[in-house]
Amino acid sequence: MLEFVAKRFVAGQNADQALINVASLYEDSILSTLDVLGENVSSEGDVAQAISEYRNLFEKISNTGFQSSVSIKLTQLGLDLGQEFCQSKLREILEMAAPKNIFVRIDMESSEYTQRTIDIFLSLRSEFPLLGIVLQAYLHRSLKDAQLMASLNAPVRVCKGAYKEPSSVALQNMEDIRSQYKKMVELLLVSGTQVALATHDDELIEWAKSLLKREPLWAQQLEFQMLYGLRRQKAKELARMGYRMRAYVPYGKSWFPYFYRRLRERKENILFVLKGMVQD
Length: 280
Ligand code: FDA
Description:
It is built from 11 helices and 8 strands. By secondary structure, it is of the alpha/beta class. Bound molecules: dihydroflavine-adenine dinucleotide. The site of dihydroflavine-adenine dinucleotide has 22 residues, from strand 4 and strand 7. Dihydroflavine-adenine dinucleotide is lined by residues 107-108, 134, 136, 159-163, 198-202, 225-227, 230-231, 248, 265-266.
């Protein structure tokens, strides 16, 4: 039953199913970043399987012409098995993506992985220009990380942060998080960096629109991003207004941790699930 309701947030069990949804988004002028679901894998075999799925995905993306990128979690590439191991696996992925001109973004996971994720990103960034990273506005450290990325002109997706973190590590108050989010986005834009504004929050979206009104050239650097299954009408509306819009499109069988984060984020998502269960 859960699997049935998870369909709202997950675009399919395999790449072909996900790409049908990517095509439909594209018809609404919404680009996609595809994510093969999976995280915290604990065996080299699981890492090999994830890499093989990304290989399959790159092949299919390059046959579509939808300009899709991909998003990837380092714990899916064995970060728990060792930093060097994970770095070599990410390199394999990037070597497959580069000849096909496919942009790869490293998702950001919980704070125990932040420094290692940034270190791996930095070690590969100069070799692979089509590599980007995510920074989470709720972390106390993120303004500094944004300054570093701005100095390197490294593409950054800014999100609030989806993991439960203690107050020693992360801001807890929504207004403080929004305020740090805005500071990060503005400093990245000022430095000429490519920024993905990942949020469903109207306040941040309206703020970004007013920023682009003030500085129209920043529109070349900024794209809006939302999660598959959420706020499709709003995404469509932004795309229709001429803003670059991208959906994060996850697919695969290991959907539960992703799904669980979506439920924790917003009570309306839980209501949706409960409604689905009752209707069933
Ligand atoms: P939030 O949940 O904070 O809600 C704020 C307000 O926005 C609400 O009160 C409401 O007004 C409005 N709103 C929110 N959702 C709505 C909806 N569905 N319908 C109508 N109104 C809504 N996290 C992470 O830790 N690492 C990562 O790599 C990523 N990657 C990522 C990619 C993309 C494309 C997105 C959109 C998000 C992520 N995230 C993420 C998740 C992110 O950190 C965050 O947890 C969620 O986006 C929720 O925060 P929001 O700012 O979207 O709205």
